């Protein structure tokens, strides 16, 4: 015993065994071939479930490396497929495995287990089963988040998991407030953290503070109005101090939280007034036009882009609407609350976000998308552009683009007179 087993991870090939149980076809109509062979969905589903059962068993292996690989494989499967019935039968086993890995594992294993816990609740949705999962895992997650001896990466993953699982499952207002208080105790240390005993900026815990702040902000979006007002009064004057942090992610997290707080404050009180508005807008404008030579170009570009939107939100009450496409459907992100929620789940689900938006009842309820739109293969085929038509379209676009560029590049082009 104790020898690491050769774990074959869940891969894209596994996901496509049954064309993602006809789900990859949902997310991309072009994935259906005109004359593709028929797939025995029942057989391939059995093969997939057999593999997943093996991964669940391996989460109890003596080798930490094997356990971690099994957790990562389960994460890949849960993010790319809806496996409600399969998980429902094994939720207690999965919960026990996750709890054991978080309690006894090291940093990487704890992070993988926390990520799997998020996906487990996303799969199960906001029902009694998820509440039972959170009752078991919630105290364990809080313990790791508050444990100064645990690795920062493990605490960071557990803070994110705590916020997401609480958002999904809790109907108990006291549990919501308790979880928010736990996260508050973490990120508020960033207010006074700025310098250590040698006067040198300390960034050791910044990643943890960022994750705790974002998880707390997510939970704030589902709080009652009176609690929202209390939190705004408590934090709105302190958050601007984080805009001076050396870490780009902390500056962005603080800025987006400020934009969201202003949005909530104005929704609850049409006459909301912030007395330090001039000072705050100066800070935001400086970040939106930052030309600091000591910062990387990529960081500066990202920061300027984000803070231009934040400045518009705070100063002009404006939000740049974004459109998200998934299959035949469209979703418009038209406020900071929706953006915060979407960004959080996209971080967890990764490339599986589009598929879950189409098929996951819980996520569709969160974003008010209604019941899933079920399209069969024949309908999707009619939506597909033929390869020849696509070729003609691309050729025409290429010619038009080349002609336009040629005009701009032609030295003989009339560029005006100079005096």
UniProtKB/TrEMBL annotation:
It comes from the Eukaryota. Residues 360-413 form the Interferon-related developmental regulator C-terminal domain. Residues 19-315 form the Interferon-related developmental regulator N-terminal domain. One of its GO terms (cellular component) is nucleus. Keywords: Developmental protein, Differentiation. SUPFAM superfamilies: ARM repeat. Residues 1-38 are annotated as: Disordered. GO terms for biological process: cell differentiation. PANTHER family: INTERFERON-RELATED DEVELOPMENTAL REGULATOR, INTERFERON-RELATED DEVELOPMENTAL REGULATOR 1. Belongs to the IFRD family. Interacts with PSIP1/LEDGF. This is Interferon-related developmental regulator 1.
